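hi!! sorry for the late reply, been swamped w classes. u asked for the two structures so here they r. pasted raw, havent cleaned anything up. first the sequence of the first protein and right below it the tokens
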Amino acid sequence: MLPSARRRTFFGRPWSDYALFSILLGPNLALLVVFTYRPLIENFQFSFYDWNLSSPTSTFVGLANYREWFSRDDTWVIVGNTVIFTIAAVVGSLVLGLVLALLLDQKLRGRNFVRSAVFAPFVISGAAIGIAFQFVFDPNFGLVQDLLHRVGLSSPDFYQDPHWALFMITVTYLWKNLGYTFVIYLAALQGVRKELMEAAEIDRASTWTTFRKVLLPQLRPTTFFLSITVLLNSLQVFDIINVMTRGGPLGNGTTTMVFQVYEETFRNFRAGYGATVATIMFVVLLIITLVQVRIMDRDDQR
């Protein structure tokens, strides 16, 4: 038997390949197990218990937490806030990010400075931005109030009206995270096939037709990636809501599901119920992600 043949002892691969694979991948897998999968499993277990964080013991209650969540009156208000905020954040981020990327992909004077200015808020703390935008939306002396006063309009009470409060935190989140989608789309535009754009120009296709038929299909993988990441990020927004409204006004005016997890766990000391809300969020996100992946695979097979 040849020496090379003796070395291939497992599925036709030398053991050294598996050793290198284990060395490179092992630490990452260990971190995932310890900091991602283990907490996920424990959170699912906690959802079947009535547990006060200050107590060393917990009581098994089965599906009682889940039945309570589906039967509570405030559940659907919180779900509605989450859906509205998430849809507005995802659609707004994708549309505005693409528009800015298309604009700043042109050869304009000072475009590098503007690119940096658009991306800068993304790296700033959400809590700091929330504090700053409290003054922007203040109905008495804020920037929005001043601009509306100049055109003869009165400022909405962003801190007392639940609808305007939800609008306020949505705009704040969009301003902070717009730089993320902008940078990703700007990078994707660098890989657009120029010959296709030139062919559309030779065929005298309109700007809208070129955008819809030539450019957008090439950006589909990027849009798919951004739709998932922005969706996941927007559903986990906590700092802006906590700083600006603390889930109010009127109790749950801007409370989303992730903020409810915090309130139930650390304010009401109901860790089991908070774990229930977190588990429901995880299941919903998993389903949405699987559907998105399925749709993307189906489009790629066409």
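now the second protein. again sequence first, tokens right under
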Amino acid sequence: MAIDLKSLRYFVAVAETRSVGKAAERLHMAQPPLSVQIRNLEAQLGTPLFVREPSGMRLTDAGSALFARAREALALAREGFEAARAVGAGRRGRLAVGYMFSLGYAVLPKLVPLLHRALPEVELQFVEMSAATYEAQIVDHKVAVGLCMPPLQRPDITSTIVGMQPLRLAMPARTPLARLASVPMQRLQGQKLIALPTLKDDSDTSLVTGLLRRHQVTMQVVERVETVHAALALVLAGEGYALVPLCATVGAPPGVVFRKLTGVTEGFDVAVCRRHDLHSPFTEPFIAAARQALR
């Protein structure tokens, strides 16, 4: 049985006013079509909903049973319509945010308050991502937007650069290079390197690989790890050096120090990545907040 909301609205108006004429005025319609609508509803249900009396329209037992539920249904429908409008306008909804683990300590304490101010009625869910998982989590809709480093390079992904993390050399505090305020690239020649994953299998896409090549420096890759924090653990253990983003200095373990590289201005781009076919009113406010958090 298909009963539309319009029929319920007509029924509720007659029940509340106890008059077809008054209900018609409230609904801004003529009385005869309203009477037809009520008769059609009664025929559809197979039972009278009103008793016509000189004092007005009185609900039958069947009408009373429908009345309470009809008002609830109309109220729920109004709430649903308003919720849809609010989500469509970017005022309310839910946003799943992915972030690279290495950015967490440095960026989230700034980003989260900005998002709460920009999207006060939006429920935020934060999902930790790694270099091995962030592409799949965005492509498979596990997150709506991802704060990625480096940006994804795929035709079905839109990436907007929102900041940059300068390079830092991570080393044990006891190493002689730790005594320098800035480390010349030539001092890395022949040293052991704890490497982070490249964007693709092709090592030419790596920022670090390109930097070493330009300065004609060769380092021995002794380990390639998935996260910055895994790299720092191996640095602390004395396994080698790591070239990491500046955000790695926040929450780093004691015993690991970070130094600038002399004359090096390169850094890791940070981007907001999302599926190309995803159109959300929350995207632009998120991008603006991310840019501010990464200043």
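hope this helps!! also noticed smth abt the second:
The chain is about 40% helix and 25% strand.
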